[in-house]
Target: MFS transporter
Amino acid sequence: MSITSIPGLAPVPDRPAAPAPRADVPPQQIQRGTPAYRQVSIALFLAGFSSFSLLYCVQPLLPAFAQSFGISPASASLALSLTTGALAFAILAAGAFSQALGRRGLMFASMALAAVLNMAVALSPSWNMLLVTRLAEGLVLGGVPAVAMAYLAEEIDPRHLGKAMGLYVAGTAFGAMVGRVGMGVLTELTSWRGAMGILGIVGLAAALGFVALLPPSRNFVVQRGFRPRYHLATWGGHLRNTRLARLFAVGFALTSVFVTMFNYTGFRLTDAPYGLSQTAIAMVFLAFAFGIVSSSMAGGLADRFGRRLPLAAGVLIMVAGVLVTLAQPLPLIILGIVMVTVGFFIAHSVVSGWIGRLAGAAKGHASSLYLLFYYLGSSVTGSVGGWFWSHGGWPAVVMLTGALGVLGLVLALTVREE
Model:
C-alpha cells in the first residue's frame, strides 16, 4: 500500500533507526501510571476513535442509500463492505511497510488521509463515485489498526498490556458509536453530505492530536527495504501456530456476527411495525457506550485471571444477545443488541491483547493477520447477510449469525493459555 503525501499533512517519522538492543539490556517498556503511559493511552484512544468513526459512519445510512438510489439492501451494504474489504488487505501491506517506515508516522498519515477522503465522499456526485472513494478510504485506513496493536505490544510492559489494549479498543467503540449516532443526528439537521464533511474535519483534528501525544517508538528497530520472502515466511509461521490460527478465526466470527446484526437492524426497524426514523435508529447505536466500558474492563481482567475464560464469556454473551433479538417487543430487541455489543467488545479486547503475547518478535505481522480475518468477516458476511435478510427476514439473519457465534465459542474454548 502506498501513502500519498498531502501538503501540510506529511507523515511524521519515528526517530532514526537505532542499533539492535543488546540481549543483556531489558527493553525500555512503558509502565502503567507514568506520564508516557497516559500519553500513549490518549493517543491510541484518538486513533481508535478516528479510524472507526470514519469506517462505520455509513452504517446507519444504508436504508437511506437503498431508498435514494433504488438499490437492494445487499447492494447498499457495499458502502461499508467495500471499505472493510479493502481495509482487510491493506492491513497486511501496512503491517509489512511499517517495519520500514516506522509505526508513528504511518499511523498519522493513514488517519489524516482517511479524514480527507471522508470529506471527498461528501462531494461524491454519484453512487459509483461514493463507492470508489469509500474503497480508497479503506485502503488508507489500513495503516492504523495493525500498527496500533503492534505499537502497544512493543512499547507497553506486558503486565499492563491488556489494560492498554482495552483502552485502545474502547476508543474504537467510542469512534464507532460517534460515527453511527453522529451521522444519524447530523443527517436530520443538515444532510448526509454535510454530516460526512463534519466527521472528516473531526477525524483530521484527532490525527493532529494523536501525533502530538504519541511518544516515538523505543523498542522498534526500522528494517530498511521490502523483503517479500521474509514477510511471507513470517505470515506463514503465524498461520501454522494453532493458537494464533484459532484466534484469527475467532476474529472472523466476531465481526461476522457484530456487523451483520447492525447492518440489517436498521432495515428491520424502519419496516412495520416499528417504522423508526433515521435519528431513532441512530440512537440504537448508543449501545456502543456499553462496549467502551466492557472493553476496558475486559483487558484488566484478562491480565489478572487469564484470557480463555473471559474470551469465551464474551462470545457466549454475543450468542445469547443474537437469540434475544428474535423477540418482537422493541425493548427486548435493544437489549439483545446491547448484549451483542458488550460480548463483542469483551472478546475483541481479550483477543487483541492475546495476539501480541503469542506473536513473539513479529507482532505487526500477527496483528495484521488477525485484522485481515477480522475485517473479512465484516466485509464478506456483512454482505452475505443481505441475501439472508431478503430471503428469510430477521430469523434467517439470526440463523446465520448464531451459527457463526457458536463456531467462535468452540474456537475460544479450545485455545490454550500460555
The longest helix spans residues 363-413. The CA atoms of residues 20 and 354 lie 25 Å apart. The chain has one domain: 35-218+238-413.
